[in-house]
């Protein structure tokens, strides 16, 4: 009986050790930050503040979930902000169609950019950081050229519902995020695709030798990342009822990467932690809102987020 208890306790200890240290600390940090805002930030629990916070978290988390899959394969995608801008501009060209064509058409166009990223990285062998950096510059440039650098405003109630609407008092973007996160989580946990992503991140050479089509899986994760970035772009554009090719998605790469590493996914690749990433996005959103609501320059929050990324990577290396 004693031996059985020892085995059970050892099993529980091993499972606890498998949880990244950042995931154990993350909920505590979020709670402490909320408590700080309760006492320091005026109107933190105002409806408009909470609504804006949820919208910010939703767009960041959608981009970060796609980034999680890319990082889990040992890659990186710096083009997600530019793809958000492309989604914003593309949607304005489809305003005269019905909402389904607008959404699906925009997602398809942006998927092609992800397909291009994935093809160059997987089949030609260009480093992910180089390829996606080039796409970040080119994509933003394309979006600005298509709009001549102007803000394109519009009025389309069906489209605006995506970013402004709610169902049962729950913001529609939050509902989208929940279903996307749940779907990706189930795919990662229970399908061969998820196991292949983890295997490639753990050891790409071994995965290739074991018969996994590494190139195809990488191609798929960059396509997924682009589609989710496009979805975030649609939410942001519909919320503003305007497409701003210069500002939309600007520096969201930083928030997305921070959310991923804080959520427990290793920058070197391996197991993707989807819900950890969502909580990481919550932390990034709270930091942004805390700075804005207390009239602290937003640029200061970028420094904090950069420090968080470095700290999370340090703990990852220390606990490997």
Proportion in β-strands: under 5%
CA(first)-CA(last) distance: 33 Å
Overall strand count: 4
Mean pLDDT: 90
The ordered string of helix (H) and strand (E) elements is HHHHHHEHEEHHHHEHHH
Number of domains: 1
CATH topology: the name is ABC transporter involved in vitamin B12 uptake, BtuC
Tally of alpha and pi helices? 14
Strand order of the largest sheet: 1-4
Question: From the 3D coordinates, which CATH architecture would you assign?
Answer: Orthogonal Bundle
- Low-pLDDT regions: 1-16
Radius of gyration: 20 Å
What would you say this structure looks like, in words?
The protein has one domain: ABC transporter involved in vitamin B12 uptake, BtuC (Orthogonal Bundle). The chain is an all-alpha fold. It is globular and about 55 Å long. The strands form two sheets. A two-stranded antiparallel sheet has the order 1-4. The protein is built from 14 helices and four strands. The protein has helices at 2-18, 21-40, 47-72, 80-93, 99-124, 128-147, 157-164, 172-190, 192-202, 204-209, 214-240, 252-262, 274-293, 298-318, and strands at residues 152-153, 166-167, 170-171, 242-243. Keywords: Cell membrane, Membrane, Transmembrane, Transmembrane helix. It is a multi-pass membrane protein. The chain crosses the membrane at residues 21-39, 51-71, 78-95, 101-121, 167-188, 219-242, 248-266, 273-292, 298-315.
């Amino acid at each position: 009986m004693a031996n059985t208890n020892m085995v059970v306790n050892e099993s529980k200890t091993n499972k606890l050790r498998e949880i990244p240290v950042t995931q154990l600390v993350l909920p505590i940090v979020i709670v402490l930050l909320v408590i700080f805002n309760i006492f320091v930030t005026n109107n933190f629990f105002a409806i408009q503040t909470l609504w804006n916070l949820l919208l910010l978290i939703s767009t960041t988390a959608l981009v970060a979930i796609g980034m999680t899959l890319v990082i889990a394969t040992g890659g990186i995608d710096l083009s997600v902000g530019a793809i958000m801008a492309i989604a914003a501009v593309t949607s304005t060209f489809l305003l005269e169609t019905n909402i389904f064509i607008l959404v699906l058409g925009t997602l398809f166009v942006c998927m092609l950019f992800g397909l291009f990223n994935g093809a160059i990285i997987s089949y030609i062998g260009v480093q992910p950081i180089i390829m996606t950096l080039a796409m970040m510059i080119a994509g933003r440039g394309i979006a600005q050229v298509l709009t001549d650098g102007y803000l394109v405003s519009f009025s389309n109630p069906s489209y605006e519902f995506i970013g402004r609407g709610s169902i049962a008092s729950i913001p529609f973007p939050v509902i989208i995020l929940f279903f996307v996160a749940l779907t990706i989580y189930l795919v990662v946990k229970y399908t061969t695709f998820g196991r292949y992503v983890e295997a490639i991140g753990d050891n790409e050479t071994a995965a290739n030798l074991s018969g996994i089509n590494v190139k195809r899986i990488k191609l798929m994760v960059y396509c997924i990342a682009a589609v989710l970035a496009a979805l975030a772009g649609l939410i942001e554009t519909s919320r503003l009822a305007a497409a701003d090719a210069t500002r939309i998605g600007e520096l969201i790469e930083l928030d997305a990467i921070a959310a991923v590493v804080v959520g427990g996914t290793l920058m070197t690749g391996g197991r993707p932690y989807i819900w950890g990433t969502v909580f990481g996005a919550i932390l990034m959103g709270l930091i942004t809102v805390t700075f804005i609501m207390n009239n602290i320059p937003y640029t200061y929050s970028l420094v904090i987020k950069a420090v968080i990324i470095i700290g999370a990577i340090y703990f990852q290396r220390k606990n490997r």
